[in-house]
Amino acid sequence: MVLSSSQKFWLVVLRMAIGWHFLYEGIAKLANPNWSSVGYLLDSEGFLKGFFNNLASNSSVLSVVDQLNIWGLILIGLFLITGFLCQYAMVAGISLLSLYYLSHPPFIGMRFAMPSEGSYLIVNKVFIEMIAMVVLFVFPTNRELGLDRFIFRSKK
After folding, report:
1. Is this prediction's pTM over 0.70?
2. Residue 30 resides in a domain
3. Among 6, 41, 141, CA closest to 81
4. Cα separation of 90 and 72, whole Å?
5. What is the predicted pLDDT for the residue at 91?
6. How many whole angstroms from its chain centre is CA 137?
7. Cβ(18)–Cβ(136) under 8 Å?
8. Is 12 part of a structural domain of the chain?
9. What residues make up the domain containing 59?
10. Which of 14, 74, 79, 80 is the S-S candidate for 26 at Cβ 3.0 to 4.6 Å?
């Protein structure tokens, strides 16, 4: 399947917008010396509640989780914006979003202390961004417009 210029353009725009979202979230957390994922992890529900609560209960583990979260967001964002190692960045981004989703699943009967921006059932903003990243993974643009174009030049 050959994509049109317009389709490629909008896929690149989508990739860069998601990249910006990741980058900004990471920078905002890095810039706030009081930020920690402890509240988010302790507010978890669903079948992985124990796992997320255990991460929050150990200060050493929590410190590592916070740093992985911050730097993961920043690096994924930078890689998506620049088109550098995008396929790996998308797998990492999908994985991170999956953890966010599973920590606070929008299912019937789930009650969270943290306020929500709306009423969701199964599909929320995290899920939509995750699906958008899957689409970008399936229709990669990094070799069309991105640093990967220069790294992975095909030898024709």
Report:
1. yes
2. no
3. 141
4. 11
5. 98
6. 13
7. yes
8. no
9. 49-149
10. 74
